[in-house]
Amino acid sequence: xxxxxxxxxxxxxxxxxxxxxxxxxxxxxxxxxxxxxxxxxxxxxxxxxxxxxxxxxxxxxxxxxxxxxxxxxxxxxxxxxxxxxxxxxxxxxxxxxxxxxxxxxxxxxxxxxxxxxxxxxxxxxxxxxxxxxxxxxxxxxxxxxxxxxxxxxxxxxxxxxxxxxxxxxxxxxxxxxxxxxxxxxxxxxxx
Amino acid sequence: xxxxxxxxxxxxxxxxxxxxxxxxxxxxxxxxxxxxxxxxxxxxxxxxxxxxxxxxxxxxxxxxxxxxxxxxxxxxxxxxxxxxxxxxxxxxxxxxxxxxxxxxxxxxxxxxxxxxxxxxxxxxxxxxxxxxxxxxxxxxxxxxxxxxxxxxxxxxxxxxxxxxxxxxxxxxxxxxxxxxxxxxxxxxxxx
Lengths: 191, 191
Description:
The structure is a homodimer of 191-residue chains. Helix content of chain A is 51%, strand content 21%. Chain A is of the alpha+beta class and 191 residues long. Chain A has two domains: 2-144, Jelly Rolls, CATH 2.60.120.10; 146-191. In chain A, the strands form two sheets. A four-stranded antiparallel beta sheet of chain A has the order 1-8-3-6. A four-stranded antiparallel beta sheet of chain A has the order 2-7-4-5. In chain A, a hairpin with a 5-residue loop joins strand 4 (56-61) and strand 5. In chain A, helix 1 packs across helix 5. Chain A is globular. The relative contact order of chain A is 0.15. The A-B interface holds A 60, 62-63, 68, 70-71, 81-83, 86, 92, 115, 119, 122-123, 125-126, 129-141, 143-145, 176 and B 60, 62-63, 68, 70-71, 81-83, 86, 92, 115, 119, 122-123, 125-126, 129-141, 143-145, 176. Chains A, B: This is Cyclic nucleotide-binding domain-containing protein. Chains A, B: It comes from Flavobacterium profundi.
């Protein structure tokens, strides 16, 4: 299954299979069950996750006590609370499995060491962060520019498989409205 | 003045002065006057900007015809519309000088060439995008979690010099409310 990680790396940078064999021991592979937490609020965030199979989400509990999902990660996506991870701080987020998942895990100290020992991976991570940043900039534009209905329709248009795959109450949590409101919009769309 | 760019690079990666001399010709240095546009909506976004002196902002015109500022860049910050830049697409944004500014400019094709010829800079740009992404993730949390007043007070707390430096109507545009509403909050804060 680590083969899919190798394929992902070589999309962005040249890396021999023999070098990949030296890279892999920096990671642990874990299996998590649906709804299992990989990170909880208040924990020092020391780990970075790469999804081999399944789906994770990141959320925080807002001041009304409601879970607000801010990101999902499916196969070939990285996920962590990046500020807390980089600075070794307690996180304000939870990371939880949406489905039974298989995940590669690396600690911050090991990621730093990995990059020093295998500088070819600087190019890989540069692409990962560059694309994540670009997606996040677009997301900020949508948050300013779109009504809740428009945000939902945009998501259906851009990520149809994702909207099918993830439970509707989590789509609602990602878009910042109640599951009831989402049902209403979906019914309006059908009628 | 390019010296400040060299200092910024060497905060993140080792680079000899002699190698920096080979890097610098990949960039043009331009001077822009306050309110001058560096990028306008509909243009193919081919350039990445690094602020040596001054301040730029990025904004789009929302469906009410109002300028919505999404990012600022002061000294040592990079700025572009990253999705359009990476894919060579027309942009939905404007980039404009907030103050008279001095800016380093690099074209996408040259940035790609630069990274292939000087792979040490992969590490530099990896840090740049990693930090930009982390800041942007935090921004998304604030957009979900904070009322407009809270967002303003948070900005005053985290970036006091920035709030002093940038005109108030642009702070209002960044936070997504009218200048009048910002005046009201500031008056409440004083009283």
